[in-house]
């Protein structure tokens, strides 16, 4: 979460998909993330979960299929929604 380093490893394999991961993050940080849409990202939410892939690019959580996300995710970061604008698949 921005401003609050939380240096802890997470085993993404215990989650069955994005919904379970997002619920776990919401419970861990006591925040509301909201629903993801391909067109609008996490619009209307104060926070947007992002991840750094193995190429060093930051993308929105949910931009790629879950099966591709698990091996490519190196680091998770919960950004303020306004700062995450412009992060989309392929950037």
TrEMBL record:
Xref: PROSITE patterns: PB1
Main location: nucleus
Domain PB1: 1-81
GO biological process, one term: regulation of DNA-templated transcription
UniProt KW Transcription regulation keyword: yes
GO (cellular component) term, any one: nucleus
Keyword field: Auxin signaling pathway, Nucleus, Repressor, Transcription, Transcription regulation
SUPFAM superfamilies: CAD & PB1 domains (SSF54277)
Keyword Cell membrane: no
Alphabetized InterPro entries for the sequence: AUX/IAA_dom, AUX_IAA, PB1-like
Domain of life: Eukaryota
Subcellular location: Nucleus
Family the entry assigns: Belongs to the Aux/IAA family.
Subunit structure, interactors included: Homodimers and heterodimers.
Functional summary from the UniProt entry: Aux/IAA proteins are short-lived transcriptional factors that function as repressors of early auxin response genes at low auxin concentrations.
PANTHER family tied to this protein: AUXIN-RESPONSIVE PROTEIN IAA17, AUXIN-RESPONSIVE PROTEIN IAA4
Name of the protein this chain belongs to: Auxin-responsive protein
Organism: Punica granatum (Pomegranate)
């Amino acid at each position: 979460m921005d401003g609050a380093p939380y240096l802890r490893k997470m085993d993404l394999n215990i989650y069955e998909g994005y919904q379970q991961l997002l619920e776990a993050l919401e419970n861990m940080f006591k925040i509301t993330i909201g629903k993801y849409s391909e067109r609008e990202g996490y619009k209307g939410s104060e926070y947007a979960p992002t991840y750094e892939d193995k190429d060093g690019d930051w993308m929105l959580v949910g931009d790629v299929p879950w099966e591709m996300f698990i091996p490519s995710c190196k680091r998770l970061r919960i950004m303020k929604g306004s700062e995450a604008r412009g992060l989309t698949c392929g950037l």
